[in-house]
Amino acid sequence: MKISFLTLGCRTNQAESSYLSRIAAEKGHDIVPLSENTDICVINTCSVTAKADYQSRQAISSALKKNCKIVVTGCYAELNGNLIAGKSNSLRIVENNFKYHIFNDLPITTSSSLCNSRYHLRHRPTIKVQDGCNNSCTYCIIPTARGRSRSVAPHVVIDQIIELENSGFEEVVLCGIHLGSYGHDLNIEYTLAKLLEEILSSTHKIRIRLSSIEINELTDHFLNVFHDQRICRHLHIPLQSGNDSILALMNRPYTTASFGNKINTISSLFKNISIGTDVIIGFPSESALHFNSIKAYISDLPFTYLHVFPYSERRGTPASTFKGKIQDNTKKDRCKEISELGRMKKDIFIKNNIGLEHDILIENLTPKGYLGTTSNYIKALIGADLRAKPGSLIKIRLTAEHVQPVLSFPINISQASCK
Q: Is residue 393 within 8 Å of residue 170, measured between CB atoms?
């Protein structure tokens, strides 16, 4: 049987789809693009913004044009099942909590192999260690779609990573809807830092990358563990706004002062670390003065890249009732300014890395060479004639006569040698 996956949104969705892909492949089925004559199409939807809603609807429409069974799951399906139901007799909606049971009844074929699974084509596999969120950010609908925070048992996570390492993988990404809350719901006193310690002691060389983590969860214990060189020099720490009035309206649990102090501390503790962030622009009541203060604040902090989003009203959230809505064209112009600031910061960060040695994970072969990712999250190209293969971790020295604009990255690399 041929099975396709259309995955939208966050790393957690990607991890879930990868897991389901592996389950299907282990039962002997082929994982194929939707363009092939697929028998089942699984659509893992997202609803974090209006754009994500639109993309989810487009994915469903594309699948409906195929003569196949369709399974729709994820946050958009969770929140808008009534809009999806009835579109086709071949379409089935699966709630988020039952997502991993989609293939329970899938038959096992005579050929039980992983060779056709896209799970094995992802050289930085993502493992979901946590789901749900207990926070109450006024703009966010995801806690409604995902429920309260739930942690995967530590031994289950560790066993998965040991299996990946034994299979030859050199890096794993840990993700969750609210990753930093890992362990808070367990019956024992447990934290993400403790999980990292146990992963490091239970494995030998596989490096660990973390998805998004909140500023208040970067405790002294966490930062002590983070010193281990097997944990990638990369943190993604959501800011959302650089103005205290807007942060209060968002119900974010920190001030610009406390956030900035912690970011500067991390930057000083970990040389050449990549620190990324999320920024929501055009939140209700964001004035021109607010925006200018946000831009100045972000400019002063050692971020190395920015993910910039225009505020997207989510029906059912407190923010959807707030006054002072910002016009779309104003949001667009402000987003453009902050995005340009992000490009400048990324350019500076990459220029500062030219001439330095890095461990880089080789991922995919492109027409221009192999694409890889350094520990501190620089995407780069190396020659196709390198004595390495996708999935391998090698030591390189980044060199370039000049740094290309970020929009045309990745940069070129020379003087690469196998580790």
A: yes
Domains, the chain, with CATH or none: 2-101 (3.40.50.12160), 123-232 (3.30.750.210), 259-351 (3.30.750.200), 354-417 (2.40.50)
**SS3 category, 160:** helix
User: What are φ and ψ of residue 340, in 5° steps?
Assistant: -65, -40
What backbone phi and psi angles, to 5 degrees, belong to 54?
-60, -45
CA distance 222 to 74: 30
DSSP calls for 258-326: HHHHHHHHHHHHSTT-EEEEEEEES-TT--HHHHHHHHHHHHHS--SEEEEEE----TTSGGGG-S-PP
Q: Report how far apart, in Å, the C-alpha atoms of 381 and of each of 304, 366, 384, 395, 400 are.
A: 19, 9, 9, 13, 11
Residue 250 CB contacts under 8 Å (≥ 6 apart), including other chains: 137, 138, 139, 240, 241, 280, 283, 319
Using a 10 angstrom Cβ sphere, with 0-12 exposed, 13-18 middle and 19 or more buried, the burial of residue 179 is buried
Give CA–CA dist 166/288, Å, rounded. Answer: 54
Distance between CA atoms of residues 319 and 6, nearest Å: 30
Closest residue by Cα to residue 13 from 48, 61, 54: 48
Report d(CA 280, CA 141) in Å as an integer. Answer: 15
Percent helix, strand and coil across the chain, each rounded to 5? Answer: 40, 20, 40
pTM above 0.85, yes or no: yes
> What is the rounded distance in angstroms from the CA atom of residue 4 to the CA atom of residue 43?
8
Q: Are 25 and 4 in contact (CB under 8 A)?
A: no
With the C-alpha atoms ordered 239, 240, 245, 249, is the resulting torsion angle positive or negative?
negative
Cβ(321)–Cβ(300) under 8 Å? Answer: no
At residue 136, the 3 state secondary structure works out as coil
Structure-token pair, residue 146: 């995902």
Please state which of the ranges 11-25, 211-225, 372-386 shows the lowest mean pLDDT.
372-386
Q: What is the pLDDT of residues 218-270, one digit of tens each?
A: 999 999 999 999 999 999 999 999 999 999 999 999 999 999 999 999 999 99
